[in-house]
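[User]
Um, tokens okay?
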Amino acid sequence: MRHKTSKKLFTYWNNLRGDRFAPDRREIEPSDIRDILGDTFILEIDRHFRTISFRLAGTRLCNIHGRELKGVGFLGLWDEIDNLAIFEAVKQVYNNGKACTIS
């Protein structure tokens, strides 16, 4: 939560969800966060296949990686040595619905 973009996104998310675990998809209005959409991504977790992949990735993220990221495995973008820490962070966010930091 060090970046202005992350703070803005989490403030928006928390305001929408209130006391719930997450807001309803229909409540999210992309125009409300248009200035940070290029830096935003949504992950999809498939418990059956035990995969974490990009469901949506903003244009700036795709440009940095030189390709479209939709459907790409998230953990594949990290060094093998960092995969466990990244996986644990994603699991914590998924299970608790709260931001976390990786040390």
The beta strands are 41-46, 51-57.
